[in-house]
Design goal:
This protein has 359 residues and is α/β, with parallel strands linked by helices. Helix content is 36%, strand content 20%. Helix 4 links the parallel strand 6 and strand 7. The structure holds 6-O-phosphono-beta-D-fructofuranose.
Length: 359
């Protein structure tokens, strides 16, 4: 009898910990006598001719790969196969090609390491192809539902916290207000967590509306207390007070958040008379070696994904809840974006520490 063959792929933006998920899945699947194949460049790799894939063996994870950021398989966060934008401008549904490629490879199950957007696509795809799917949540944004943490978030917060640690002495040396813009898409989790851990005076997140006057009064209060510097952390999706998004538009009309901290830096300087400087952290938050927390989460989740398939289940996402790894229905997990609870523990903690949200 031929071995059970499971495909694994990373999909969406990369983050730290993806390789550790793959390692855990490969080690536990191999122990069951299964074969794992890695699809290169996410779903895009299956649409190439010939499809891009390779067998993954425990030897491929010889003790170094787990420590690396990024994904050794490559990934893609554009080109939905159901609405695939061809280079000639046409939009095609290429899902059947993708399903045919998976079947040709003898795959009956797919482990997808992705965020909610990728899960929605992969779930639809495997259902159409009558294949089995288990998702492992990863995203520095930590916005996937029904899991307390997604792989990559802890590392991104560590990087952002370290950035505040590095900004503090230079802020103090020059009597400046330093603004740090962090990623997170429409959720402010990175800003809140790093803002508390990194001693920010002001945390601005998309979930809490602010005014420039309130930010300015916090900075004035800091100055009047005798401190000569202040730290402000800003989520990339924060809007201007009149509701405008700050986005960069790329070739082809694709947009990415960016630039709100520059805007706020000028506003804060005008309102307080302080000298302000802005740092945009960007993809540095994704590129680090995974923290121990991300390695543990990745290991638990990679192994759990195999366990879910082994017990015959599918259509599930592995999740971290109540100090344990579990699994939930994929459609429940992607129902809504998990944003910062404005009455949640971290916002309450920040307020208790005197950190302002500008509200
Ligand atoms: O979703 C992860 C993320 O890093 C967001 O925080 C950010 O807005 C976006 O991806 C950046 O996307 P790209 O890698 O395409 O620039």
């Amino acid at each position: 009898m031929s071995k059970k063959r499971v495909a694994i792929l990373t999909s969406g933006g990369d983050c730290a910990g993806l390789n550790a998920v793959m390692r855990a899945a490969v080690l536990s699947a191999t122990a069951l006598g299964w074969e794992i194949i890695g699809i290169e460049n996410g779903t895009a790799g299956l649409l190439e001719s010939p499809p891009r894939w390779r067998i993954l063996k425990p030897d491929d994870f010889d003790g170094t790969v787990m420590r690396l950021g990024g994904t050794v398989l490559g990934t893609t966060n554009s080109r939905n196969p159901f609405e695939y934008k061809m280079d000639d401008g046409r939009t095609l549904d290429r899902s059947d090609e993708l399903i045919a490629a998976l079947k040709e490879l003898g795959v009956d199950s797919v482990i997808g390491i992705g965020g909610d957007g990728s899960f929605a696509i992969l779930d639809k795809l495997v259902k159409k192809g009558d294949l089995k799917f288990v998702g492992v949540p990863k995203t520095i944004d930590n916005d996937v539902g029904l899991t307390d943490f997604s792989v990559g978030f802890d590392t991104a917060v560590s990087v952002a916290t370290e950035a505040l640690d590095r900004l503090q002495p230079t802020a103090a040396s020059h009597d400046r207000v330093m603004l740090l813009e962090v990623m997170g898409r429409d959720a402010g989790h990175i800003a809140v967590a790093a803002g508390i851990a990194g001693g920010a005076d002001v945390i601005l997140i998309p979930e809490i509306p602010y005014t420039i006057e309130n930010i300015a009064s916090k900075i004035t209060e800091v100055k009047e207390s005798g401190r000569n510097f202040a730290l402000v952390i800003v989520s990339e999706a924060v809007r201007t007070p009149d509701g405008r998004k700050h986005e960069v538009v790329y070739h082809g009309g694709e947009t990415r958040y960016g630039g709100i901290a520059e805007y706020l830096g000028v506003q804060i300087a005008n309102a307080t008379g302080s000298e302000t400087r802005v740092t945009v952290l960007g993809h540095v938050q994704r590129g680090a070696a995974p923290t121990y927390n991300d390695r543990l989460l990745a290991s638990a989740m990679g192994a759990k994904a195999v366990e879910v398939l082994a017990r015959g289940d599918h259509g599930r996402m592995v999740a971290w809840q109540n100090r344990d790894v579990t699994d939930v229905a994929i459609e429940d997990a992607i129902k809504e974006c998990y944003t910062v609870a404005t009455d949640g523990v971290l916002v309450r903690t920040a307020r208790a520490l005197g950190i302002s949200f500008g509200d």
